[in-house]
Amino acid sequence: MKNIIRIITLLLLTNLAFGQEKACEFEIEIVTDTSNTKVLKEKIIDENIFGNTTSFLTFKLFVVDGFVGLNLQYLQKSKDFLSPICIDGNTVVYLELSNGKQVKLINSSKNEDCNELQYDEINKNNLRILSGFFYFTPENFQDLKTEKVYLIKVTANTGDVNFVIKPELNSEIYKEKSTPDTYFIDYLKCLGV
């Protein structure tokens, strides 16, 4: 009887472990003899709704011929004025990990890009969208596969922008529940790195 209970418990635990696995959903997947490009679908990492202002941060992991990177997009909308954020070749993204280490990502572009002010006539909102492509550096990259991220810091030339990452996010914008602190643990394996 004890053996049957052990077997049932083992099967349930195994099923639970595999049931928690995140699906690899690709926006682009092109693999040939000479090239390998994979881009994961966009996932929300941070969302902030306060007063007249809404902002959110999304990520897309990608790999192009062995180079692993991250497309970061930060959208802000508000009835109030929004300060510009500009990134250039010196902009760095730091991921603070639960083990106290940092992972550094460098900007793929040397040009300055600013989130230009736009106006939404219908909803009467100011809009700013900042998008950038960043590549991982070798230091501590492997730690992303096992350690949670608790802080993201973007060192822009107009000032730093910090995001405190939640263990669970119930997005009002995307209408989904996610675990942003385990984003890299969940999705780096999809790229085969």
Describe this structure in words.
The protein has 193 residues and is mainly beta. The protein has one domain (25-191). It is 12% helix and 49% strand. The protein is built from 2 helices and 15 strands. β4 and β5 form a beta hairpin. The chain is globular, with a radius of gyration of 19 Å.
Short note summarizing the structure:
This protein is mainly beta. It has helices spanning 2-19, 183-187; strands at residues 26-31, 36-40, 43-50, 53-64, 67-78, 86-87, 92-97, 102-107, 113-114, 118-120, 125-136, 149-156, 159-164, 169-171, 176-178. The radius of gyration is 19 Å and the shape is globular.
Distinctive features:
disordered N terminus; single chain; eleven-stranded antiparallel beta sheet; mainly beta; Secreted protein; 2 helices
Number of helices: 2
Listing every helix as H and every strand as E from the N terminus to the C terminus, the arrangement reads HEEEEEEEEEEEEEEEH
Oligomer: single chain
| Total discrete domains | 1
The pLDDT mean sits at: 87
Q: How would you classify the helix and strand content by structural class?
A: mainly beta
Proportion of helical residues: 10-25%
* First-last Cα distance: 44 Å
Proportion of residues in extended strands: over 45%
User: Which segments are poorly predicted (pLDDT under 50) over 5 or more consecutive residues?
Assistant: 1-19
Signal peptide: 1-19
Protein name: Secreted protein
Keywords: Signal
